[in-house]
Amino acid sequence: MRRFHIALAVADLQDSIADYSRRLGVEPTAVVPRKYALFRTDQLNFSINQMPERAGQLRHLGFEDDAASGFSSTHDVNGIEWELFSPADQDAKIPEVYGKEVIRAG
């Protein structure tokens, strides 16, 4: 499966989790309190980072792809970062980047 990935900066993680849970119709699959949340739908991999100074800004785009090997990142002609990763690689990277305080749903 291949999902489009969008990563945004948000002002308040808890308020954003409540808002995006309603908008996407799913609860986050992973949460790092006060830092990060990840939502997965059938078509979308959506992550948010609490970064009040950058709230509302795009952090990067990409694809979650079951066929991907490892975690890669490139920039397009407009300077936007694009990531490519498998679900397992992203799941492993979350505690590596944000620490062990990951709460997983399901």
Automatic annotation (TrEMBL):
InterPro entries: Glyas_Bleomycin-R_OHBP_Dase (IPR029068). This is Glyoxalase/Bleomycin resistance protein/Dioxygenase superfamily protein. It comes from the Bacteria.
